[in-house]
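for the writeup, i need someone to sanity check this before i put it in the appendix. the sequnce is what the collaborator sent (i think, or maybe the updated version? ugh). structure was predicted straight from it, no edits. if anything looks off just tell me and ill rerun, i have time this weekend
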Amino acid sequence: MATDGTCASLQDTEELCSTFGLHKGYHGVHRYPLAKIVMLVLVETMIAIDYGIGRYKTDETQLLKPMLKTLREGDLLLADRHFAGSNLYWLYESEGLEYLTPAHQKLKISRLKKLWSYGENDFVAKLKIGDGYRRENPDMPKCITARFIQMEVRIRGKYQRVWLVTSLLDAARYPADEIAALYGRRWRIETMFRRFKVDMDSDLLRSKSPDAVYKEVAARICALNIVGTIMLEAATANNVDVLRISFVDAVRTIIAFAPHLAVRPPLQLPAIYGRMLVEIPACQVPYRPNRSEPRKLKFCKPHYPPLRTTRAEWRNQYAA
């Protein structure tokens, strides 16, 4: 199970601006309101099992907390360092969950009190919970027990040493190299966000009221899961890894077969659907482990200048 957050731009209506808020950054106030979206995704099947929507300034951990109730005891939660911290680790454990995250950037690994060690870069230690968190929630203990593993990862083409924190304390059952490989699967949720924002054109939502925004996000995630479920069924029927199937080509295949499934007699539908399941795995993405791509544009940008204000403000200022 992996979790992470992203943002979606909304239409520049007054109601959406007041409900979701505007982003203020280095270049000034953002032109469009932004909605914060947090998802829970099954990393082996790329299916979203839950999500939360809030204002742009809403902390992603606040959106995640209600979703933890949907998980089962013993589930493993993979997350980035934004969801790391002793208070959050205690919350995961109180819900019966296991966790695996990078260490928080402010945590001093060298100052931890080791309880026992499995190796030079693999040990179990006590992690203190801050007094401020304990005053807010008296049920929190003073410290928790966690395992720390150092691994080498490739980030933007460069190898770096990263400390992982997990509740999987038994090194015999959970070797360090397997935990490091398991954390690498967390990046699949970024592919899920790409499907949601790019392939399904959800980077800028069309709705112009808060209720419609909630419905549009729900509809797009349902469509995402429907396609993902059909891809999983096609992968199982043809003995193919579902992660190797192209999402875009799967959508095109489903759209191509949709008219036949809508008008043919019911007795012919199983055969047409079975043929569609054969066509979906025909287009597979190549296996490219440790791929690194430059963050540069291949094509030039459009020749039109960007709109720095809303269209209504531009019309009032420039329109005749």
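The first strand starts at residue 2 and ends at 9. Strands lie at 2-9, 22-25, 28-42, 47-55, 76-78, 98-102, 113-119, 122-128, 143-155, 158-166.
thx in advance!!
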